[in-house]
Amino acid sequence: MRSGDAATDELLRRLLAAHLVPGLGAPANLSIMLASAESGRGPVQAFNQLFRGSQLVVRTRDPRRAVQALLTYLAALGGAPDPSLLHVTGLPAVANGRGVVLPRGILSSLKTLQPRLHRAGIALVDAPMATIDPRIVSLVVPEPGLGDDAAVLAEVPEARRLGAELPRVEPGAYPLAAWAFPCGPGEQGRLTPGRALARALAAGAADDTTPIVEAATRLRPLLAEITPYGLWYATIDDLLAEVGRMLGEG
């Protein structure tokens, strides 16, 4: 992990003091850039950004949200996942109180896409994967999981102005409405049960701890309750139109 300035580095060291390993020369998987206090004094609040490798994964005017996102991404790097939940490759989002899983590849257009998603009432969840509880057919937004010192976290200011940006999606369970899978041209639209199951298994629902047969048994009733959707797009306009159609079927 690395940060953009000495003040952020010092704050994160205090926030994560219980988890630091002295002298460990590990490469930085995550980078956080917090806007300075001076940059937020004008009419437009500056953006705070979190990178995973070289990919921008969180972009927000709220500094505390960016730090909470970092804690969530760090927590996902270690620890045993809850075996009762499905942890799959996808970009979790919430629209009108309902959970949605989008293809993670759309993050490549985050800077341009996020404002348009916000105007459509779709808020992206700051998490490295989508977590689904098949028992209650819900998208689970986890607590950050690290950062034991609430007093240090409280030192990170919250945004004074979000503009058109939607607020952070709070931890909790959101009824899952739809799960979108990337597909080729001409394949977009609602998926058949067999194709949806195959795409869900390929997204990581079956792994070293969950055999394919067990994962399929958990997935079939879940997929029957939601809209599994093949998503193909050439432009952001295409993407937004397809997401709108998908949510309209949910």
- Summarize the main sheet: 9 strands, mixed
Total DSSP helices? 7
Stretches where pLDDT is under 50 for at least 5 consecutive residues are 38-43
Q: Report the count of strand segments.
A: 13
Keywords:
4-stranded mixed beta sheet, globular, 7 helices, 250 residues, 9-stranded mixed beta sheet, 32% helix
Describe the overall structure:
It is a single chain. The protein has helices spanning 6-15, 63-76, 110-119, 150-153, 193-205, 212-225, 236-249, and strands at 2-3, 30-33, 48-52, 55-60, 86-88, 91-95, 98-102, 122-124, 130-133, 138-141, 172-182, 189-190, 227-231. It has one domain (2-249). The strands form two sheets. Strands 5, 6, 7, 8, 9, 10, 11, 12 and 13 form a nine-stranded mixed beta sheet that branches. It has a four-stranded mixed beta sheet with strand order 1-2-3-4. With 250 residues, it is α+β, with helices and mostly antiparallel strands. It is globular and about 50 Å long. It has seven helices and 13 strands.
Which helices and strands, and how do they pair?
Blueprint: E1 2-3, H1 6-15, E2 30-33, E3 48-52, E4 55-60, H2 63-76, E5 86-88, E6 91-95, E7 98-102, H3 110-119, E8 122-124, E9 130-133, E10 138-141, H4 150-153, E11 172-182, E12 189-190, H5 193-205, H6 212-225, E13 227-231, H7 236-249
Parallel strand pairs: 1-2, 7-11, 11-13
Antiparallel strand pairs: 2-3, 3-4, 5-9, 6-7, 6-8, 9-10, 10-11, 12-13
Helix pairs in contact: 5-6
